[in-house]
Design a protein that fits this description.
By secondary structure, the protein is of the alpha/beta class. Helices cover 21% and strands 39% of the residues. It is built from 9 helices and 19 strands. Helix 3 runs antiparallel to helix 6 and helix 7 crosses helix 8. It starts with a helix and ends in a 5-residue tail after the last helix.
Length: 410
């Protein structure tokens, strides 16, 4: 999987042709070309690196996948409020088009949080992405949730979502990711950037249902200014391997973030979550709760870092990772990390657990005539309920999806 071998399949001309087809301005083409050069210069991660040693990507057939040109029909489609009565109040459209018609809404933000220099496949994403911008002006409250669909139709897919919410504005985005391909490998490398202005209120949930053979890599980063609040949720259901970064920078005094995660694994699925709650300003707060239920030979790694920097006094941070192991072969590796530089922190706490269902609870249900499989399903649903109740999603639909997975994940 050398850079030279990969370059034979997708080249600089591919990047130029994509930008030309999308009728992009010169500045965006130059950014794509810089990302392409970064991609060519980088190597794939060393499996001995701390971030990668628990996630084996050696089965990814990268050279073969990059012989397939990205398909434009695998793009992004707005639904919900994007076509409803709120539509006139905010901007929702193609990054490429808006880079030409409203460059001030794109140029300062695009790939400034999720950078091409992060790692090799992020650089490839920055060179070949097709993206969507949601821009909410100052003081506008978008009442109805915006449902954003990201669907892979080919072997490679590079989505990008840019969200900019100005001062005292509000927005809820429900992103659903999926792929049409189930019987062969798919490569997904995506990015989400969220900018929350002073006193902005943003809720973002991604429900991930990639195909059974998908290798999906995604980086989500948010920056919160003074008094802003972000709720970010991740629901992980699909993919052969899914590695997701969720990083939040609390840059303004009084900013707050709530990070929620829910995943269910079966077969040989592998999830890898990397989270960061980075407190830069005083009186900021963050709370993280991730829950996973793992069946069959599935596995999950969660590495969560809380950073409280100098000058971020009177901050409050908490993180918790709870993992249910539904089979003797399932594995969970929760790794909490605290990095505290400030001396007057209100709270900085963490907790992590991994283990089977409670035998006493199972016995109680079964002693009342409930079959073992149904007892397990009820307990797993109850385990997830705390997260489900806090997400701004169709809860009945999510419960039904989980109910169908429980017992079928082995």
């Amino acid at each position: 999987m050398t850079a030279r071998a990969n370059a034979q399949a997708i080249s600089e001309e591919t990047v130029r042709a994509l930008s030309l087809r999308l009728n992009e301005p010169d500045w965006l083409l130059e950014r794509r070309l810089a990302a392409w050069r970064a991609y060519e210069a980088m190597s794939m991660p060393d499996p001995l690196d701390e971030e990668w040693r628990r996630t084996d990507i050696s089965a990814l057939e990268l050279d073969s996948l990059l012989n397939q040109q990205p398909q434009p029909e695998g793009g992004l489609s707005p639904h919900g409020a994007g076509a409803g009565p709120d539509a006139a109040a905010f901007v929702y459209g193609s990054v490429s088009e808006l880079a030409r018609t409203r460059p001030q809404a794109v140029q300062p933000y695009l790939h400034s949080l999720v950078k091409a220099t992060d790692w090799k496949l992020q650089a490839l994403q920055a060179a070949l992405f097709e993206g969507t911008l949601i821009y909410v002006p100052r003081g506008v409250e978008v009442e109805a949730p915006v449902t954003h669909l990201a669907r892979a139709a080919s072997g490679t897919y590079f989505p990008h979502l840019l969200i900019v919410v100005e001062e005292n504005a509000g927005l809820t985005v429900l992103q659903e990711t999926a792929s049409r391909i189930e019987d062969r490998q798919t490569l997904v490398s995506g990015g989400v950037e969220i900018f929350c202005g002073p006193d902005a209120r943003v809720r973002f949930v991604e429900t991930q249902r990639w195909g059974a053979e998908a290798f999906a890599f995604s980086t989500m980063r948010a920056r919160l200014e003074r008094g802003a609040h972000l709720q970010a949720g991740l629901v992980g259901l699909g993919g052969r391997l899914a590695k997701t970064k969720l990083e939040v920078t609390l840059a303004g005094e009084g900013a707050s973030a709530e990070l929620l995660g829910l995943s269910f694994g079966g077969g040989r699925q592998h999830f890898d979550y990397v989270t960061l709650q980075d407190h830069l300003a005083p009186r900021t707060s963050s709370d993280l709760l991730f829950k996973a239920a793992l069946d069959g030979e599935s596995s999950q790694v969660w590495t969560g870092t809380v950073g409280i920097q100098k000058g971020a006094g009177q901050s409050d941070a908490n993180q918790a990772s709870r993992n249910l192991l539904l089979s003797e072969h399932a594995k969970a590796a929760p790794i909490p990390v605290l990095e505290i530089e400030a001396y007057d922190v209100l709270r900085c706490s963490h907790g992590a657990t991994a283990g089977p269902l409670d035998e006493d609870q199972l016995f109680y249900l079964e002693s009342r005539g409930i079959p073992p499989a149904e007892s397990e399903r009820l307990l797993v649903e109850a385990f997830f309920q705390e997260v489900i109740d806090r997400l701004p999603v169709d809860r009945d639909r999510l419960r039904e999806t989980l109910s169908n997975r429980i017992g079928a994940g082995s």
